[in-house]
Amino acid sequence: MALRDDIQSALVAAMKAKDNVRVATLRLVQAAIKDRDIAARMQDNCDGCSDADILQILTKMLKQRADSVKIYEDAGRLDLAERERAESEIIESFMPRQMSDEEITAAAQAVAEEMNASGLKDMGKCMGVLKSRYAGSMNFGKAGAAVKEILS
Question: CA 20 to 30 Å from 75, out of 32, 65, 107, 113?
């Protein structure tokens, strides 16, 4: 639960520094994690969500903010778009380093060879392996395009 501890430590530091945007964003993250913990306990009485689950939550939050930025910019609300960008930067600071396009292509090639993938019918298998190995650090939209190009 190291990621959970990192978020808590960052929240305490932001509160001491009186960084209101960071405090509000980290509280939103913690609330989302707590919601997932409650849902996990109700399903199978486990101890809560893992770091992988937290990375999924952060990824979803980043996507929501990216969508909001576009909507706010289209509506001419640049102040709100900037706030969403600031929240995105804070959330991204807890994510693993994102892979470059070249790294994504190399990983897709390696998985395709490993799986002996011969055509687009094997794309789902390749994507499943990539998602399990590179959760949180790979853009799967780009990975899907790379796998499709390799297999076609």
Answer: 32
What pLDDT, on the 0 to 100 scale, is given for residue 42? 77
In 10 A of CB 4, how many CB atoms?
Answer: 18
- CATH number for the domain that contains residue 71: 1.10.1510.10
The SS3 of residue 19 is: coil
Count of domains for the chain: 2
Whether residues 85 and 143 fall in one domain = no
Which of 41, 71, 92 delimits the end of a domain?
Answer: 92
User: Average pLDDT for consecutive 10-residue bins of the chain (152 residues)?
Assistant: 88 95 95 88 72 86 94 95 95 88 90 85 88 82 88 80
**In this structure, what token pair is assigned to residue 2?**
């190291």
Burial call 64-93: b when 16+ CB within 10 Å, e when fewer: ebeebbeebeeeeeeeebebbeebbebbee
